[in-house]
Amino acid sequence: MPIVLISPEFTQEQYEETNRKLTGGKNRMESPADWPVEGLLAHIAGQGENTFRVVDVWESEEALNRFAEILIPILREAGVEGDPEVYPALTYVSA
After folding, report:
1. Containing H/E element for 77?
2. In this structure, how many other beta carbons lie within 10 angstroms of the beta carbon of residue 19?
3. β-strand 85-88 against 40-47: which pairing, if any?
4. Helix, strand, coil fractions of the chain, as percent rounded to 5
5. Residues 1-15: pLDDT tens digits?
6. 58 with 3: CB under 8 angstroms?
7. CB–CB of 14/78 below 8 Å?
8. What's the pTM value of the predicted model, to 2 decimals?
């Protein structure tokens, strides 16, 4: 069952800082191979009207949890507060 993760509000600068720490220097993720764990199905990031948002879809809660163990300390280090929204996807369609 796919799991959706919507990151807490943060800036594009914090997003890029987080990516550099996750990837060893890249400002943005370019392929699933850039993630430190397997199981990512989709990653969408962009600037909204009021905040920068990230939505990930993971193949399972276990895959998400493996990623969260790495991500959460990095987010806190970057000054990002709050917990992400996490819920099972009712529908996931991929091209």
Report:
1. helix 61-77
2. 19
3. unpaired
4. 35, 25, 40
5. 677 768 767 889 998
6. yes
7. yes
8. 0.84
